[in-house]
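Forwarding the complex inputs:
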Amino acid sequence: MIINELRMENFRQYYGQNNISFAKDPEKNFTVIQGTNGAGKTTILNAITWCLYGFELHNVTDDPIYNEVVENETSQSGKFRVKVEIDILNKNNELTTFKREKNFHKNTKGKVIPAIFEDDEFSIFDEESRNNKRVEFPALYVDTNMPEDIEEYFFFDGEKLEDYFRENTGKVIKKSVFKITQLKLLKRLIDHLDERRRHYAKKVRDISPETGALEQEIIDKEDSLKENSSLLEKAVKQRKIAETKIKKYENELKRSGSSDIQSLQIEREKLEREVSELDTKIDSAKNDKIDFILEMTPTILAYPALKNTLKEAATLKEKGFIPAKYKKKFLEDLLEDGVCICGMKLSENDKCKKTLEELWEKTSNLTDIGDEIGTEHASIESLLEKLNNFRDKQTKLGKEIRWLEKEREKKSKRLKEISIRLTGSEIEKIKDFEEMLQENKRLQLSKIREEAELGAQIKSTNVIIEKLKKKRDKEMQKNAELENLKDVVLFCETSLDVSKELKKELIEDIRVRIEKTTKEQFLKLNWKESFVDVLIDDDYDVTVVRKSGRVSDANGLSAGEKLVLALSFMAALNQISGFDLPIIIDTPMGRLDKEIKLNIAQVLPKYLEDKQITLLVTGEEYSSEFRDKLHHRVSKEYIINVVQTENGNKSEVVLHGS
Amino acid sequence: MEYHVNVKILDAINNTNQKKPIKDFLIRALLIEFEYADQEKPRIKDDYDRLIRKGVKEMRDLNDNK
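Prediction (whole assembly, two chains):
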């Protein structure tokens, strides 16, 4: 969506009709409107917001919205009007015109008053309804296509951008993200649905106090789950803060200027890495030991039986049953069938029958499983051999663990020594850094424990809730009145669970996308190329990482870098909003030094390449060097001239050079 | 009337493994929230109850038709 044309009539400084046509060429997507302070740059932003929303939203003054020249030129009892029209082109090149006008008249005492009984007249005409037919419900049309809530992320004041990176930045940004992505709608949906679910739970209590008590228990458990989840979030945040501070103090120690301190810190980092590797190895060796014991347990338990089997097998072998000459079952079959192996009928040959019967008597039952015994014999022997090595392997693993633990102890001891040396440093600053570092490490450890405890509690509460729900559902089936309510409660519960899960997923997805776009834009726009990463945590606190590895929050950046970060962040918010609107930046570089301005001018064309961008600049901002750097991307250039007349000042927007 | 609720949220609802009545309910409730955004909402409870009844009915019909 781009602005095709803005037409202002008698709006504040702008006397009569002033038309501004905007850049439409994607290759030259910039429009620059230049004017001195007070000439009417911000008025252009306000003309747009007044037309769309009925309010001026930028640096609002108490002055009337009509032009002072037209006021002075209008005779007593005379009338005049203020009108703003905006032509918008959508991606299919279809035109929509937004029009707001307000009539005024001068009374006999010369006072200007709005036309009585007349509200602002706001109308929208789109391409299809151009024949004087208006779009129905214009306010709703604006609300659905360019809601006022998110206006500030498209039309913004460059001088205020750095406000994003002050105290409580994360909180402010999180609020903006919820607003711009409409996550607040989902949050309200959850609140309202939860309220209705509690209402139905009360109904259940009224009908059956027993079932109601179960329902209440579920709700109480869910409340405790919510509380624990929020405590967990808090613990994670505190741990992350502690980790950032740990990094910060470690860097401070490394950059302390004293080579002794630097090498101690470098040695410590190396030792910490080694300790961490040793921890992993110790864990793995301990697991190996346990796994081996578990693997061997069945063999240990079955040891007497296995030994006996081998003994039995040896006896059978000795007696010639293994390998079996005859299987007992085979002899039995011959006797049952009454036919000898030679084909003779046993009923006709007593001798043969007797021989077979004697053979059957002598043959062990085990000959039937002789083959199996033969095959298993090898496996049993191999198992028992493994068991013979059990003690050796256990001793070896135990030794390995003890050695690793000893190594770890040595390194930990050295780490303690380093810390004691740093804490005892004569340099006050070093002493402070080390103390803060250790304090934050203790905090980090305690938060890790807290996270684990809360995580376990959350897990067990979830199990209890599931059990309670099953019990409640069973109870509800016993009562016909409750049976109906059961479906309602279940429906609310499922919808609530789904929406909570969605909210969680969307928050993370949006954070990742904002981080990605902010990083992309920031690295692209930064002329020094001294940054390698931008990180945005769950609380939307921004951290930048320099090539040197130094990490700092947004407040640690220079004014120019901060502006670039803010612009990058705005670009990210703009992209995730889902609204396709043009961008207008008022005084983008107001407070910056000349050199930084030029650097920004150099990188600005790379900013949001697919968007129509309008810059409202002062002459000082738009110096000839700045203009040269941006020129190839600018298709419209205007100057706001301020003309003094006997009836007051009026501003005129004229094309540059005309 | 076309409402401009963030497409990402609607997509996320549609992409869940839930049954249609649940998805429809969430989308309808979201539109109600959008419609009442930043306004006093005296009718919101009634609207939710109506949507819940509708959802429960659709869910029963769906289960009956299985």
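The domain at 2-22+42-143 of chain A is CATH 3.40.50 (Rossmann fold).
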